[in-house]
Amino acid sequence: MRLKSFTAPTMAEAMHLARQELGDEAVVVATTEDETDGTFRVSAAVEQAEPPVPPHSNGRTAPQSAALQHIAQALVYHGVPENLATKLLAAANAVEEEDPILRLAAGLDQMFQFLPLPDRAPAPPIMLIGPPGAGKTIGIAKLATRAVMKKQTVNVITTDIKRAGGVEQIEAFTQILGLNLHIAQDPGALKDLIEMQEAPSLTYIDSAGSNPYDPQELENLRAFIEASGAEPVLVLSAGGDPREMEEVGDAFGSIGASRLIFTRLDMTRRFGGALSAADRAHLKLANISVAPKVTEGFHPINPVSLARFMMPEYVAPSRQGTA
């Protein structure tokens, strides 16, 4: 596949240059505006000619350009950055499959790792971290509810003592589940609580929302992570500006975040930001939340289900929203 970028004073002119050189079969991979000089850039790809496949041979046939066009349009719609979109499209191009969902899934599988959170003990403690309002406390409630329903021993700890109503919010959920909520006011107290937990059990730790651009808040969070020995899992709303989300992913990745949970998929239409955060910080994609209800729980995510979310127009109505 041949990829080339074209820059012009207007988007229409950039598109015209791309079509003029690469032809009408060119697949638009990304469109961007340079904020420094106001120019527009179009990155387009065209399949290189392949030698004909002899009759009755087992050689590859040329990829289906229609499927690639649909994938490229989806990547542009979701605001996937150009470099990542190019890699995803190249991986999809290497797959012998007419279904655009499966071709996009192949690209996602090549670019990302998928590793859902464990739901049975024994397992290391899990600490949900992230910016304020990302859905960490509701996430802890969902994980604890799942553990109780699976008849697992579960411990819930909160370090969110500064936010008004933070303790009361998580305590309302633990009381319904018949669990005792443990409160750690500092890293030392958290370490003691972890050492006191029953084994084997599942331990979930709720953290205070942290500003990714405040070094002191990140260092405070790092202290809790190191004291607990927990795996820090980043929780982010699926929507958001890709460049902003890359910086957020970088910030939390720098203090040990290993996996990523997407929330608010019920209120999100574009996933380019979430994918950018995962790609930039090399985060494994773990689970998603498609509804705010605690009983809905988290759903594991895999390449095919993520591709379905990104291209719902190619999913049968009875299968939309499944993970």
Can you characterise this structure?
The protein is α/β, with parallel strands linked by helices. It folds into two domains: 2-50 and 62-111, no CATH class; 126-301, 3-Layer(aba) Sandwich (Rossmann fold). The protein has eleven helices and eleven strands. The protein has helices at residues 11-22, 65-77, 82-93, 100-111, 136-149, 166-177, 187-196, 215-228, 242-253, 272-281, 303-310; strands at residues 2-8, 27-33, 40-46, 126-129, 154-158, 181-183, 202-206, 231-237, 259-263, 284-288, 299-300. The strands form two sheets. The chain has an eight-stranded mixed β-sheet with strand order 6-5-7-4-8-9-10-11, with helices on both faces. It has a three-stranded antiparallel β-sheet with strand order 1-3-2. Helix 3 (82-93) packs across helix 4, helix 5 runs parallel beside helix 6 (166-177) and helix 9 runs parallel beside helix 10. The longest helix has 14 residues, at 136-149. It starts with a strand and ends in a 13-residue tail after the last helix.
Please outline the helices and strands:
Blueprint (H helix, E strand, L loop, with lengths): L1 E7 L2 H12 L4 E7 L6 E7 L18 H13 L4 H12 L6 H12 L14 E4 L6 H14 L4 E5 L7 H12 L3 E3 L3 H10 L5 E5 L8 H14 L2 E7 L4 H12 L5 E5 L8 H10 L2 E5 L10 E2 L2 H8 L13
The side-by-side strand order for the widest beta sheet comes to: 6-5-7-4-8-9-10-11
Total beta-strand segments: 11
Which consecutive residue ranges, at least 5 long each, have pLDDT under 50? 49-64, 317-323
Helix-strand pattern, N to C?
EHEEHHHEHEHEHEHEHEHEEH
CATH fold-level name of the largest domain: Rossmann fold
- Estimate the strand proportion: 15-25%
Helix and strand content put the structural class at alpha/beta
Q: Tell me, what's the shape?
A: elongated
Helix content: 25-40%
CATH class of the largest domain: Alpha Beta
Distance between the termini: 31 Å
Rg on CA atoms, Å: 23 Å
What is the CATH H-level superfamily of the largest domain? P-loop containing nucleotide triphosphate hydrolases
- What is the CATH architecture descriptor of the largest domain? 3-Layer(aba) Sandwich
Helical run tally: 11
Largest sheet geometry: 8 strands, mixed
Number of domain modules: 2
Overall pLDDT, averaged? Answer: 87
